[in-house]
Amino acid sequence: MAYDIAALAEELTTMAAADQRSTADANSDDPARQLAWRRLTARHGDRLGEIMAESGWPTADLVGEDAARAAWLIAQHADRQLDVQRRALTLMREAVSAGSANARELAFLRDRTLVNEGRNQVYGTQIAGVKDGAPVPWPCQEPKRVDELRAEVGIEPFDAYVAQFPMATGEASDE
User: How far apart are CA 20 and CA 60, in angstroms?
Assistant: First the structure.
């Protein structure tokens, strides 16, 4: 069993590394690069769906911190697979309640899933675009409480969060 867990951890971290290398392709001007990104995230989403069906949510206790974060990233980027995102959200919510998953990551996945469902987000983690040089979040359920809700799950205030974005500072980024 230990070998299987080690192999699963390695598989998750390898998928997340490929995801991170290709992230820029998601919004590329080149349709072929966009398609490659969509195919990669779909393959990874499919595999995460299989992993969740076989083993539940890959918690840090099970696969280690890096692989657990990798699983979250894969779920986060499974934008065209709402079934995978919803299943991950349910399993992560249970894991957070049990103290074996990260509430901050759950908040990001919850917002991402809500936005993909066409609903208002809770924590203001998903950015809709830029207005007057400043990142603008997708609509939030309780805009006046966003920073309070963010603090409850360990996310920095919205203004501090968006200050990290290259578009907010006017600087280019390699990420």
Answer: 20
- Write out the two tokens for 78: 């499974």
Smallest CA-to-CA distance from 16 within 47, 53, 57, 61 is with 47
Spatial distance between the Cα atoms of 6 and 22, rounded to a whole number of angstroms: 25
Q: Alpha carbon 94 to chain centroid distance?
A: 17
**Do 24 and 42 contact (CB within 8 A), yes or no?**
no
pLDDT band at 119 (very low <50, low <70, confident <90, very high): very high
* Residue 111 pLDDT: 98
Taking the C-alpha atoms of residue 90 and residue 92, their distance in angstroms, rounded to an integer, is 6
**C-alpha separations of 15 from 62, 111, 126 in Å:** 17, 22, 22
> DSSP secondary-structure letter at 119?
-
